[in-house]
């Protein structure tokens, strides 16, 4: 099979590179707390990813399963980004402000 149109491949690679840059971007104030938060968020994202993939494998069949597997390329990145920035904002709201 030949595919002369490289649009799909360029979009997938561009999206993965973009998500990698967002995922591993350093904060202005990077300390032990944010490193620990990153580690916990990544562990949470991988657990959530595994659970979602298991559920999809058990209950989705045919070409829909194939589409879900294609989208799952990005899923772990999205879960990490959402969890990390949610926890970071929650901490910033709860923590006393330093002057």
Order of helices and strands: HHH
Major sheet details: none
Choose one word for the global shape.
flat
Q: Which band does the percent of strand residues land in?
A: under 5%
Rg result: 17 Å
**How many helices in DSSP terms?**
3
The CA-CA distance between the termini, in Å, is 63 Å
Helix content: over 70%
Instruction: Show unreliable segments.
Output: none
- Give the averaged pLDDT, no decimals: 88
- Helices and strands: which structural class? mainly alpha
Strand tally, please?
0
Q: From the structure provided, what is the oligomeric state, counting identical versus distinct chains?
A: single chain
Kindly describe this structure.
Helix content is about 80%, strand content about 0%. It is mostly helical. The chain has a domain at about 30-95.
What's the short story on this structure?
This protein is an all-alpha fold and 99 residues long. The protein is 78% helix and 0% strand.
Fill in the keyword field for this structure.
mainly alpha; 99 residues
List the helices and strands and how they pair.
Layout: H1 7-23, H2 32-59, H3 63-94
Helix pairs in contact: 1-3, 2-3
